[in-house]
Each structure stands twice: as structure tokens, then as C-alpha cells.
Amino acid sequence: MRTFDPECLRALVAVAHSGSLSAAAQRLYRSQSAVSEQIRKLELACSATLLLRSKRGAELTPAGRTLLGHAQEILDAHERAVLAMQGVDLAGSLRVAVTDYFHPSGIAALLRRLRASHPRLQLHVTVRKSASIEQEADEEPYDLGLSMRILERGATRGTPSGVLRVPLFREPMAWVADPSLQAAAGGALPLVVLPASCAVHRFVARALAARNIEHYVAHCASGVAGLQLAISAGLGVSCLNASALPAGLRPLRSFSGIRLPSLPQVEFALLVPQAGQSALIDEVVPLLAQVLRAAVPMEGDAAHIMV
């Protein structure tokens, strides 16, 4: 009887989420050849080709997509078994504040997998701006906060006293626009942004003003999902972190002859206001950090995982 090695299944999941063998190898802290060998073993066990490799990365075949669903279920069951044998039973209720800049296309599926893996753990999730998550950490309006911080040169921003900050990963920011976007009359740069209370909006305004680039707000969205739709509709140029870029769009260096400013990286982190005060929180933090890091859709060296 043929069986599947969980580590080989983990490799398949990593390739599917990251889009390439090299990115999966970084995520798994293995060599690319080791990941390739694990995929080969799965293909032998299935008697089917699971991946199509090209210069652009790796794409799952129909057989690969079928196995992917089973692989995630097997790995979730494996994790539950390990926790059970360690005497860890994650049960209780936690308030979680999440920035919607975090992997917008994947956060719902991630929360669904967490619920399936830990049915007795109730997560009450609210989507908030990173600025409020950072500023209100010491007021304890949530138990766990997932925040994004722009690593702007010269900026000094600390974490409130008594709040544990767990860095997860860093990734680049990018200018982006749909190819259908036409230059505005007069040459001013049309922007698609969130409200002025958004840190990215304020950063973009400062960066363009520092380069004397004339601009105006063509569309103001209420959230990142609306921002992505507006960008894809060709309403303007925007600035997003790499994992929030709309599918099919590539980063810009210039638009209509305007050289756009270089951009810093952003850092995602977990904020824990009550670290050391709750056994449940202390047990969930390392688990959630691991899950969030694994969810990063890495492309080559686009993201830097922090451990």
C-alpha cells in the first residue's frame, strides 16, 4: 500500500503557495534540490505529474490540484495529532485585529484552516488599520494584533511598553497600475489610495511631494479589496505591499514618463498586549506566527521570513 510522506506533502503545499521551487525551498529552509526530490517522490507515489516547471516558476497540474486539497487536510490532522500528544488543547476565545494589507487573497482561507485544525479555538477577527492596531496596543482592545509597518528611513517608531512584538516577515512595496490606465490631462499622477488616515496614503503623499511630482486622488477606497478593484479597473496608480498586488499586474518603475520614487520594505508583526498573562495566548502566539509566515506568497527573494 502506497502512503504519502507528510514532509513531501508539505513541500507540495509550499510550492503551490509560493509559485516556484526556489521560493518553496526558502520557506521550508531546505535546498531547492531537496524540495525537487520530495516532489519527485510524490509523483512516483501517485504515478502522475504534479507540477509543470517553467522559467516563470511551477504550476500545479490537475492531479497536483487534486492532491493539494488532500495534502492540506492531512497536514492539518497531523498538526492536531502532534498537539494532542503534547497535551496542548487550544480552547478558548481570542480577539484578533488584522490589517487588510496582509495577503488579502489568502487570509480567509488561512482562518478557515485554523478553525478546522483547532475547532475549540474561537477567533473573533476584526479588520483594522495598522496605525490603530499599533497605537492602541497598550489599551488592550484585542488579544493579538497583526500589523504592517513601513520601514521608512529615519522613522523611529517604538512598541508600547509591556507589548510583545513578534516580527513575521518583510516584503517590498511597489507602485502598480493597470496597463489600460491613460495619463491624465496636464500630466498629474492619478492616485488610487485609502483614506488619509492610512499610513501608506500619507507615505505616498510625502514621497511624491519630496520629488515634486504633481498628483491628485482619482479614487479613494475604503479598504484594500476596493483598492485592488480600482487599480484593476484602470482608475489610477497605487502603492501596495508585494503580497497585496492584484493578480496579473506587475510593479512599475515609471508612469507616462514620470520616474516614480523608490520604495522601502514593510514589516508584518504580531502584537501581543498580554504576553505572559494568559496561557492560551502564550500557546497560540508561536502557532499563529508559524501559520502566518507560511502563508506568505513568496516570489524569489520578494519576502524575507523573520524567525
Automatic annotation (TrEMBL):
Keyword list, A-Z: DNA-binding, Transcription, Transcription regulation
GO molecular function: DNA binding; DNA-binding transcription factor activity
InterPro entries xrefs: LTTR, LysR_HTH_N, LysR_subst-bd, WH-like_DNA-bd_sf, WH_DNA-bd_sf
Pfam families with a match to the protein in the record: HTH_1 (PF00126), LysR_substrate (PF03466)
Superkingdom of this protein's organism: Bacteria
Residues annotated as domain HTH lysR-type: 4-61
UniProt-recorded name of the protein: Transcriptional regulator, LysR family
Matching Gene3D superfamilies: Periplasmic binding protein-like II (3.40.190.10), Winged helix-like DNA-binding domain superfamily/Winged helix DNA-binding domain (1.10.10.10)
Similarity comment text for this entry: Belongs to the LysR transcriptional regulatory family.
PROSITE patterns: HTH_LYSR
